[in-house]
Task: structure prediction
Amino acid sequence: YVGLGISGGEYGARHGPSLMPGGPREAYDMVEPILTEIAARVDGAPCVAYLGEGAAGHYTKMVHNGIEYGVMQLIAESYALLKQVFGLSNDQLAGLYRDWSRGDLDSYLMEITAKIFERRDEKTGGYLVDVIRGEAGQLGTGSWASQSAMELQVPVPNVDVAVAMRGLSALVGQGQAERPGGRARDRLGRTHDVDLVRDALYAAMAITYAQGFAQLSAASVALGYGLRLEDVASIWRGGCIIRARLLGDIEAAFHRQPDLSNLLLDPRLSAEVQGRREALARMAQTGISAGVPVPGLTAALGYLDAYQSDWLPFNLIQAQRDYFGAHGYQRTDEVGWFHTEWLAGQEGS
Result:
């Protein structure tokens, strides 16, 4: 049997999807000519490659969907900032996303976002996006990706928060309350440069891809898939929902270093992200100050800063765990595990 992950939606079904096959190599070899023929193509190369044993294909598709969740959350947050803080109209949003889709943010999701803001509603004559109820559904693949990452102890906070926010979208209005003096968003106007939103979005999207590929790297070792991440990036360049210009840079990064455990360790990609960190921080702060929820932007910023930090405060957490549960800790000056009798000589707890 061949386990075949497929991405591309209705358009991919008609014009060629991205195919993610896994299972016995001999089984794949039997159907390879068929899959090569029906797959999408980028620069003449088919968007299909044998990924590995067992469930390698379906696992890769699951992580693809986790990245998809994360990126869609980030685009939605950019929409919220541009609409609620900068006051852009639907026509302006369509033009802006169209322009962005022709640059570094070139991607299928950016392309369809521009088209969505252009579409008129046949019933009202207004913009269709304005009459769509703001409650996002989900089929479970994002949750599965998040759960598997937690089991592997691989942090994917942008996937986690995207799943949580879809659940929270069903609760909008329940906690609504008047704020003294009104919302800060009403007083910010359009003083910020919208290019900062673009740069923040690029950085956060790159970080989300980095999280997904880090999960694939860990799963490949833990589950024995033998994934070639360069191949994964290559077959995601066309046909699938998360296809983007960025994947060409990701493919090149794994070509330079096939065993790269995290894309933020690649000097070129890291420089691209670091060069936009200030924009990411400013837009996260703008959203927070305006009362516009931007948990995807803040998750990406937190992940970046934590991953690249030379110190984090988890010595305190481990001390707390040892205090209340005798879980022990490791020292910086000796090898081994240690425990302190924290309550010795004390009364109470």
The chain has two domains: 55-172+182-307, 317-343. The mean pLDDT is 93.
